[in-house]
Amino acid sequence: MKKLNNNRRNFLKVSAATGGGLLLGMTWLTSCEREVAIEEGTGFKMPPRPDMPDRWSEVNAFVKIGENGVVTIYSPNPEIGQNVKTSMPMIVAEELDVDWQNVVVEQAGLDTDNFNSQLAGGSQSIRKNWTILRQTGAAARYLLVAAAAESLGVPVAELRTEKGIIYHDASGKSLGYGEVASAAAGIEVPEDIQLKDPKDFTIIGQGKKNVDALEIVTGKAVYGIDLQAEGTLIAGIVHPPAFGMELKSFNADEVKQMPGIRHVVTIDAKPGGAEMQWSDVNAFPQLIAIVGDKTWQVFQAKKALKVEWTTTSAGEFSADHRKELKELIESGKADVARRDGDPEQAFEDADHIVEATYSAPFLPHNTMEPMNFFADVNGERALLNGPIQTPEYLRKTVSAVTGLAEEKVDIQLTRMGGGFGRRLYGNFGVEAALISKAIGGPVKLVYTREDDMTQGTYRPDYLVKYRAGLDAEGKLIAFHVRGAGTNGSPVFANRFPAGAVENYLAENLSRESNISTGAWRAPKSNFIAGAEQAFLDEVAEAAGKDPIDFRLELFDRAIADPVGEKNDYDAERYAGVLKEVRVKSGWDESGNQHRGVAAYYCHNSYVAQVLDLSLKNNRPQVDRVVCAVDCGIVVNPEGAVNQIEGGIIDGIGHALYGALTFADGKPEQENYNTYRLIRHAEAPKKIETHFVDNGIAPTGLGEPSLPPIMGALANAMYKATGKRVYDQPFANPTLRG
Amino acid sequence: MPTYQLKVNGQPREVEATSETPLLWILRDDLNLVGTKYGCGIGSCGACTVHLDGVAMRSCQTPVGKLAESGQAVTTIEGLSDDGSHPVQRAWLEHDVPQCGYCQSGQIMSAVSLLQNSPQPSDAEIDAGMSGNICRCGTYVRIHAAVKTAAKLQANS
């Protein structure tokens, strides 16, 4: 398949043409390895980037090696702040056996021929690519060693590698990777590639700084919104002010007279007949685009445009949402997702029944970098560049709406100012492509914050009702979860405590809406974990048991004699993080702190948290969070801890303050003066993270620490105030729909 | 359109724009200084923080006409240091603060200003001084620690 602008593919040709033969006499870089040990509080000066070589040899799609031994590793997956641009290349570098100091990381563009699943979502980048990345690094190493064996005239088995140097100990000879890389090109890779024994890892498991940290702190990191190319105009969109409305007509005469304004066009991001993808969630496909010289000019023109809208379906109100969800929960006909034993009978037999209902409102994603994309589309090809979590799907849709073949659509990736699920849905990329096509030149589409917050694709609102039946000894004998949400139920039927209770019923209900909804950091878990963990706390209290003891008894049951066969968790690992957090938090020596515990399993990782709270002027202040995590092998502890801390702060913030409400289909908050995100002073004073490193293949961390913290927070708030909290946002119930 | 004379990162710059154009967009669209970020446009998130005569200000709320009239010197993230050697940048690197990184230019500019006013800030002063800057990734605990490290570094230099 021929692709446009594929520099690396072109490079391969170049390297084949100029390669061949050994580049003897070159120096390599291990001699100038730089010490970067940091003493706490002494600051950190980034070592300069290694000198770039004149010639590179491409060893495989992930790795190219310079004649001076500098190694470039391409990071295939989109970088949204989850730090895969550091951790994925670390895995390749480990098996390649190079010095991390000599590695330069570059972001790969979309290349489905060479890379596996270039998608940022579900905390899956590391889990799904762990083996592939290791094999890729090991295969590249094999090629280099084989080339060295040929050059030195010795068997491969007599060679060993260390930090980018190939040693023949018997003769005392050595060759740098850079010296043999060009000769490695024609060598065949055997099927069985030997991977390192994890105990020999020297890069994986070591804390490595974010590879873009220096660029970020000096303002040089390039995000999509920063892209500038010769002749590029700025585009803005005007979308309907409310869900349920469509464009009727507009008058652009005045706007076209405004300084710098070049074009006012309409676009349809979902034209009839064009095949759409799951990622094409978009409530407002018909838009007006204003294109001009400068961003500010376009933003002013957007405000001045006179538009008539028409109502095509009724505008919704948050108060009605809540009423409808309540009605569904009380009397709706549910889909039974799982049923074990005889729950109805067990509730009849129960000595005591605990019942509680939890809710949470709509949430916008609020990535700090608003939606944007660069596009240059003509009749021949489309060049796109920008922040997208699903480049493969964006390419399909751009192909469908422009009529260009997929191989004529090139998508490059920028570092992203946050994702949180919003950039799974690439409507802004499709819009940029259509605007570029309409005006016949390159554009950079930039949303205002207001566009971004009112465009939709929100985390939907949810309501869930739990019932638990306890026998006379306080044993949990029946459990019922009945969940409802806009455009889908939040219930995971096969998650804990399914498997730990003899009689279990999980039910799903849903209401339709014209408000578009989508995945938001830890979809569904971002609500249901907090609700479930708050409910279990209430049940433990009714059973007269310590909340950790109560959960551990349930896990004992799930370990010894699990109910059902579809339970989606490993009860021993789940119990493991709870036991770990109990010790590390000093749970059993609790003093006067108001303390809440929660544990959750989602996105293949296990997290348990203990949160200490105090009330300052009647406001909750989180003094400390202790977190135990089981994600298997921790690839980059420094980045991993950052992810855990971020998820905790993000979770606390949204549980306390997050709410988007609607009146007549119109979002009532559209910028940070009315929509409240957690601020510096409101963050926990201290977060301690402990990993249970068990040598199991690694799983992801972008999401798992967020869901349970909402439960730990609710449980600590109960301890502090004596009142259970059921409805988010906890700190401002009046914002609740 | 009128032209304005500005002093940006120590250099005289001339720009052509309407007087109400915010400094943020002058920096980004006219002077190619894109380290200063757009987040909200209403002075609520701090992503666009720069220094005017050394004091942290929201560039999205600073019209270029008034700025030129005042003659205040502008410092952006690009003007702190080219190689990350400013004590606040070194502290940010030590604590590996960024996740997505988008808000960090503004965070760093706020921190530099805070430390100028209060070289050894208390926890409460850091809370107050840094709460105008939103980080959706939730790097606040690291930012807090990095401000303290930066205070130490500045005291020792």
From TrEMBL, chain A:
Keywords: Oxidoreductase. InterPro entries: Ald_Oxase/Xan_DH_a/b, Ald_Oxase/Xan_DH_a/b_sf, AldOxase/xan_DH_MoCoBD1, AldOxase/xan_DH_MoCoBD2, AldOxase/xan_DH_Mopterin-bd_sf, N-heterocyclic_Hydroxylase, OxRdtase_Mopterin-bd_su_IorB, TAT_signal. It comes from Neolewinella antarctica. This is Isoquinoline 1-oxidoreductase beta subunit. PROSITE patterns: PROKAR_LIPOPROTEIN (PS51257), TAT (PS51318). It comes from the Bacteria. Its EC number is 1.3.99.16. The keyword Aminoacyl-tRNA synthetase does not apply. Residues 218-313 form the Aldehyde oxidase/xanthine dehydrogenase a/b hammerhead domain. GO terms for molecular function: isoquinoline 1-oxidoreductase activity.
Automatic annotation (TrEMBL), chain B:
Keywords: 2Fe-2S, Iron, Iron-sulfur, Metal-binding, Oxidoreductase. SUPFAM superfamilies: 2Fe-2S ferredoxin-like, CO dehydrogenase ISP C-domain like. Pfam families: Fer2, Fer2_2. It comes from Neolewinella antarctica. PANTHER family: BLR6218 PROTEIN, OXIDOREDUCTASE WITH IRON-SULFUR SUBUNIT. This is Isoquinoline 1-oxidoreductase alpha subunit. InterPro entries: 2Fe-2S-bd, 2Fe-2S-bd_dom_sf, 2Fe-2S_ferredoxin-like_sf, 2Fe-2S_ferredoxin-type, 2Fe2S_fd_BS, Beta-grasp_dom_sf, Diverse_Oxidoreductases. Residues 2-80 form the 2Fe-2S ferredoxin-type domain. Its EC number is 1.3.99.16.
